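Sample pair:
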Amino acid sequence: MIKLFSGTSNQKLAEKIAQQLNIKLSKTEIVRFANSEVRVRIEEDVKDQTCVVIQSTSNPTDTHLMELFFFCDALKRSEAKKVIGVIPYFGYARQNIQHREGECVSANVIIRFLESIGFSKIYVVDLHDEATEGVFSIPFKNLTALPLLAEKIKEYLSNKGINADIENIAIVSPDQGGVERARKFGESFFNTSDFPLTVVEKRRNLAKIHVSKAVGIYGDVKGKIVILVDDIITSGSTLVNAAELCLASGARFALAAIVHHDFSKQAPEKLENSPLEKIFTTDTISLLEDQKFKKLEEVSVAALLAKELKHL
């Protein structure tokens, strides 16, 4: 039997996973001091136990990362046999290459921390770039929530009396880098790999954060319902620009399937006022009250993660 621990980043998801596994979250003490330092203390006997720590490294990313590192150290000092990290949202994943000369490769640095501090294995959900998997030298598994989102959208369309077939639906990647991700979603959605894929060409201003422009569309969306597929929303600019271009190209209406809602402050209002009819996402990141809006619908990844942890 595993011991399941939760950091502070997404306790609701951790509780759902515990319920799926029919166990209780193990006891800890997490103290945050006035100078922003954090202390983690394990309050159960974990000697010779396999321990799992659930912690999304979402905003505030650095704070949640330090908490995760301290969890591992505390468990190792308490003689845990194995410490496994479940990081539903892996922060810094988009900083996996040098986009400009002189930049650090932040994702690689985080991976080195996880390895050196003593984690035995890492699980994540829909890592931004699968190539990053090759940087890990410890066991690593990249799970995907795309089939969950595909099923939820098919249910939504069925309730509207719309057939979820190739004649009615266009699967769209909102930028060139997400083609493989959109194709995987489409394979789950249509139950076949034989379908056309539409791609929006995006240009990003690397000197300015969250600034991009949709400049072209490759594929047929005229008269179709568009499903835009991506891994992360932050500002919402990429998604909204792509939706506007698809609608201007004759699409009937636009939906979005996005795994992680890593929202900036302005994103919820921007997305609610966008031409997107509905945005389907997951609970890999804890959704704050002021981030909720009518067009957003969450699907839980608790069962997906619990299924993996049952094998430990």
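The mean pLDDT is 93.
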